[in-house]
Amino acid sequence: MDQDTFREQAHRAIEQIISYHSKLKTNELSVLPAVQPDYLRSLIPVSPPEKGQNPSEIQDDVESKIIPGLTHWQHPHFMAFFPANFSFPGLLGDMYSTAFTCAAFNWLCSPAVTELETIVMDWVAEMIGLDEAFRSTHSDGTTGTGGGVIQGSASEAVLTVMVAARERYLNSLVPEGADEDERWEIRGAAYGKLCVVISSEAHSCTEKAAMVLGIRVVKVAVDPDTLAISPLALKEKVKELKAKGWHPFFTTNTYGTTSTCAVDPFEEIEEALAEFPEVWKHVDAAYAGSFLVLPEFKPDAQKWKGYDSFDFNMHKALLVPFDCSCLFIRERKWLINALSLTPSYLRNPASESGRVIDYRDWQLPLGRRFRSLKIWFVVRTYGVEGLQRHMRRTLECGEYFSSLVRDRPDLFVVTVQERFGLTVIRVKPEEGGDVALGDRLTKEVARRVNEERNFFVTAAVSKGREIIRVVSGSENATKESMKVLFEDLVAKVGEVRKEITA
Q: Which residues carry this modification: N6-(pyridoxal phosphate)lysine (predicted)?
C-alpha cells in the first residue's frame, strides 16, 4: 500500500468510525449482537488469501462481518460490568502511537516515549490527589523515589507488584553474607509457605496473579453490612497464618469492589497491619479510582499514602481507550530490584548514568507501546474540568436511576448504597414470597432484559443472593437512557411475577 492508497483508505476508515459512533449515540444499533458462537467461521475463509486483496474489500467486511458481532460498550444502553470508554482525542493518540511504533524498552529506544510517560503519569497523580511519594518528580522539582507506569490492565499491574513484593519479602529473609547456595535454599524453603490475604469481595485478578506465581490465597470474610474487609479480621488472619508457619506477604484492598463498589477502610487497615511492615499493601481502584478527579473524592487518595502501590484504569471511565492501566508505586526500587535484567545488548550510556527511567524494569514484558500519547491527548483536550464534568455526569445518571428504583419499593430492593454511579438491585417478590423466589425473579428479569438486546445489564451474586448491577459510564449515557431501562425493568418484573407465581 502506497501513501496515496493509504490516504484514501484512512479517510474512509475515519468516516466509518465516525458513522459507527454516530449510530451508537442515536441508538441505531442493538447493544448486544444477534449472533451465535462460531458465527464468523461461516463468513471468513478457513485459509489465508494467497494474493493480496483490495483494502476496500477488507473495510467492507468490517461493516458486514465484524460490527454485527460486536457488543457495543460505548452504547448509551450498555449498563453492564464497568464502562470501557472511548474518545476521539484518545483515538488520535492511539493513531500516532501506532504510526510511531517501536518496542520502547529503554530510554534510548525513543526518549520521547519514556519522558512523556513520566510527565503524564505525574499529571495523573496530581489530578487524583495521590501523595507525592507516588510521583516521579515532586512539585518542588526534586526527583522522587516512586512514580507511575502504564500497564495493560489491573490484572497485569497486580501481578507485577506481587512479583516485587515477593522478592522484597524473600530477600529480607536472607542474612547478610549468605552465599548463593544459602540464599536460594532459604528462599526456596519459604516460597512454599508464601500466602496472599484478601477479602472475599476482592477482584479475581489478585487470585489469578497468585495462581500464576504458585502462591496460596487466603480469603477473609467481609462485613455483612458494608461488604468491606474487617481490619481486625485481616490482622487476626495474618497473625494466625504466621503462627502456623506461613508467610503472609501481600494484601489487596479495594476502592470500589466489582460486585457492589464497596470501599475497604484503608486507614484502619494500615493501622491494623502496622506490626507487619513486611506485608505489601496494594490498592485496587480499577474502576472507582477515576472518581478521584472530583474534589469531593480526592481526599480519599490520602488514605493510602502509606500503601506500597495503587492502580486504576483510565480506560474504564476517564475517556482513554483500552488499554491504559495506571500503576503507581511508592518505592520504585522494589520493582527494579525484582525485574531489572540488563544483557549486553540493552546496555547504553544513558541507562547506566542513572539519569533516565527504563520502564522495562517496571513491568513484565520487555517491549511496550507509546500509550502515554492517549493520556496526553485526552487530558489536554478535555482539561481537568472536562474530565470532572464527565465523571459528574456518570454520578448523576447513577443517582437518577437509583432514585427511580427507590420510588418503587413494591418492585425493587436496592441492596447496597449506590456508589460511583453503580446501583445494585433485587426484584422483590409479591407479599408472602421468600428470598429464593426473589432470586428466581431477579435472575429471570436480567436474562430477559439482555435477551432482547436493547439493554445490557450484569446478573451477579452478592451475599449469596442474585442481584442486578446497573452502571452507565459511557460519554453517550443520558438520564433518558436510565429512565427507559427502568421502565423496561418494571415491565419485565410484571411479566415474570405473573408467570412464576401463576
A: 316
